[in-house]
């Protein structure tokens, strides 16, 4: 059994990006600039955005953090997005979700210029991804592909079962794992809350990608020997520790890992990859903008 180590792989990617940025600086070129917009004081969102800012510092990117109060109106947020869309210094930006209830999330995501949408959530980018065109792939699916690639996990002709159909992970993964090329060329089954006989389906899978958010959902009896297990779930479960909680995934790691050929841990698997791939998308955005000016 091989652990798909997201911490190590994300560090490798950040080192590669830093080397590219160092070359840009040495040549007197503009370095990539990532902005993040956060509305309100959601603890998990603030932690996540803070880690993105630190990651930018580490690789030598410029970064801008835009904090807006919880009372921000939809119009005010759309005005800020318009400002970022038109700022030539900013290569890419993200609007941290969730947003307060007075704001229409879909309207906000649509307002982001597709060329600066390094989260890969804009319908233009999602459509290009579905058509196998060059685009920004959502950071979490992009991170999963990178893990499969760097660990040389065989996907060709394999049966991939995806648990969960969110637009952020499940749906894009179902498209990406079925695309031509590597990682891809697998036969994909997309399961969700209305799927019947899910154990029967998962027990036939060569690769299982679980993005459900239900702690310990995937049990050993649901998995065949030598299956590849990608655990995207991340849940805080209250306990009596000093922190008051522990982090766990969708997979019963202790028992499933005994049967798996490859498996991602939680934490330390897919999570660290998400920020690394956001940086990679920002690097791609900067290169696109540079070529567009020529």
Mean pLDDT: 95
Strand order of the largest sheet: 1-11-8-7-5-6
Give the termini distance in whole angstroms.
Answer: 49 Å
Order of helices and strands: EHEHEHEHHHEHEHEEEEHEH
CATH level-3 fold name of the largest domain: Rossmann fold
- Please provide the count of β strands: 11
Q: Which runs of at least 5 residues are low in confidence (pLDDT < 50)? A: none
Observed structural traits:
294 residues, alpha/beta, Rossmann fold, 2 domains, six-stranded parallel sheet, 10 helices
Report on this model:
The protein folds into two domains: 28-113, Leucine Dehydrogenase, chain A, domain 1 (Rossmann fold); 139-271, 3-Layer(aba) Sandwich (Rossmann fold), CATH 3.40.50. Helix content is 40%, strand content 16%. It has ten helices and eleven strands. It has helices spanning 6-26, 43-59, 74-85, 105-111, 123-130, 139-150, 170-176, 198-202, 253-256, 270-293; strands at residues 2-3, 33-39, 62-68, 92-95, 159-163, 187-191, 207-210, 228-231, 235-238, 245-248, 262-263. The strands form three sheets. The chain has a six-stranded parallel sheet. Strands 3-2-4 form a three-stranded parallel sheet. α1 packs parallel to α10 and α6 (139-150) crosses α10.
SSE layout and pairings?
Layout: E1 2-3, H1 6-26, E2 33-39, H2 43-59, E3 62-68, H3 74-85, E4 92-95, H4 105-111, H5 123-130, H6 139-150, E5 159-163, H7 170-176, E6 187-191, H8 198-202, E7 207-210, E8 228-231, E9 235-238, E10 245-248, H9 253-256, E11 262-263, H10 270-293
Parallel strand pairs: 1-11, 2-3, 2-4, 5-6, 5-7, 7-8, 8-11
Antiparallel strand pairs: 9-10
